[in-house]
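MODEL INPUT / OUTPUT PAIR
PAIR INDEX: 1
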Amino acid sequence: MSIGLPEVLVILLILLLIFGGRRIPQLGRALGTGLSNLRESVSRGSAGKGVERGQGAPPPSSSEPVEDEEAAKRP
């Protein structure tokens, strides 16, 4: 199922009615900037953030590790 020209025109008409003519260029610019930032961060990967593979969430704050929730509820 693909989107054809009539569907695109209906979507654009709805956007024009909702946001108005002055707001559409601002929304397009913001969307383009967001996509550009997303592509940049994906291409950069996790190397730029200092996150290493294998590191997950921080360990639990309690001194005793809890294996599962059921064990934690038992007296």
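PAIR INDEX: 2
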Amino acid sequence: MSARKPLLDALVSMLTPRDVLVSCLGANARYLPHMEVPSPVFALCDSMGAAIPLALGMALQRPDRHLITLKKNSSLLISPNVLATITAARPPNLNILL
């Protein structure tokens, strides 16, 4: 079992139906589809670098929803410029967990 599973369990226990969870590749994307999550989950397997841009688009289109995205550090290094875009857009409903 990955050390990430207890962290995912804790995160999932705090989610509500108004939240949306976007996860990049790795253990997160493998565990989440098998967990009972009270909110929509986008577990992006084989999508290195795509979680933050997808979550940003959803956050901008759905300001009534709280977006949480899980990102691995190596995936962030694929497209660090997305941080500048997020800084410019400043969506108050987007949280990124690295």
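PAIR 2 NOTE: Residues 4-97 form a domain with the Rossmann fold fold (CATH 3.40.50.970).
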